[in-house]
Amino acid sequence: MQTDLRLARSEAGPRDPLTGLASRGALERSIDGHLAHGTRLAVLLLDLDRFKEVNDTLGHLAGDALLRELAARLERSLDPTDTSARFGGDEFAVVLPGVRDSEEAYERATTIRRELARPVRLGDVRVEIEASIGMAIAPDDGDETAALLHRADVAMYEAKRARRGVARYDVAHDPRSDAHLAFASALHEALTSGAIVVHYQPIARFDGTVVRVEALARWHHAQLGMIEPSRFILGAEQSGLIGRLTDYVLDQALHDARRWRAHGHARVGVAVNVAAANLVDGRFPARVAALLAARRLPAAKVTLELREASVPTLDRARVVLDDLAGLGVRLSVDDFGRAPSSLTMLPGLRAHEVKLDRAVVQGLLNHSGGSRRLAAAIIAASHALGLTVVAKGVEAAPVWDGLADLQCDAAQGFHLCRPLPADDLLQWLRRRAM
Ligand code: C2E
Ligand code: CA
Question: CA-to-CA distance for 180 and 195, rounded, in angstroms?
Answer without folding.
Answer: 19
